[in-house]
Design goal:
Helix content is about 25%, strand content about 20%. By secondary structure, it is α/β, with parallel strands linked by helices. The protein folds into 2 domains: about 5-45, no CATH class; about 55-160, no CATH class.
């Protein structure tokens, strides 16, 4: 529900891009190019909600965004946040896992934080976030072996998860 005298700060993954959404009343809102600039858009919002966009909680765009960061398929549907890591994530890479990465970006990251920073540096259009995928943690310690982890492996897997 839109309520009066509310102000939201919105940030984009594109460097230096931010805006503020100010709600003048329950019926009107405007978006400023920056906090100090004059509004450039005034719209009636009666009966509507103001939201930054849709969140794709199970995104598999982790590689396609590296190829083309414009994300036109999702952006045109209103998706502004891509969340990766439903089963695997592009961080916490062991040496064996690093050897399997596409040569175009091999060596660019080994941790999840480095991967997300790499995405931002490439200028991907949507905002990005990631879970630590359970498969990633398992592969880090066991590779593709189909067996239960040893006590030491399980301890290391738990440490990887935070």
């Amino acid at each position: 529900m839109v309520s009066a005298a509310m102000s939201y700060r919105a940030y984009s993954s594109c460097a230096g891009s931010s805006a503020e959404v100010r709600l003048a009343s329950a019926l009107q809102f405007f978006v400023c190019k920056s906090v100090s600039s004059q509004p450039y858009s005034i719209s009636a919002a009666s009966g509507l909600a103001v939201a930054p966009g849709f969140v794709n909680m199970l995104s598999w765009a982790n590689e396609s965004l590296l190829i083309d960061g414009r994300s036109q398929g999702d952006i045109r549907q209103g998706v502004t946040l891509e969340v990766f890591g439903e089963s695997r994530s592009d961080g916490l890479l062991s040496e064996a896992m690093q050897a399997e990465i596409d040569p175009r970006w091999a060596g660019e990251w080994t941790t999840l934080g480095e991967y997300l920073e790499f995405m931002v540096e490439k200028g991907v259009l949507p905002n990005v976030a990631s879970f630590v995928g359970a498969t990633t943690v398992r592969m880090h310690e066991l590779g593709y072996e189909d067996r239960a982890p040893s006590d030491d492996e399980l301890r290391r897997m738990r440490a990887l998860g935070g």
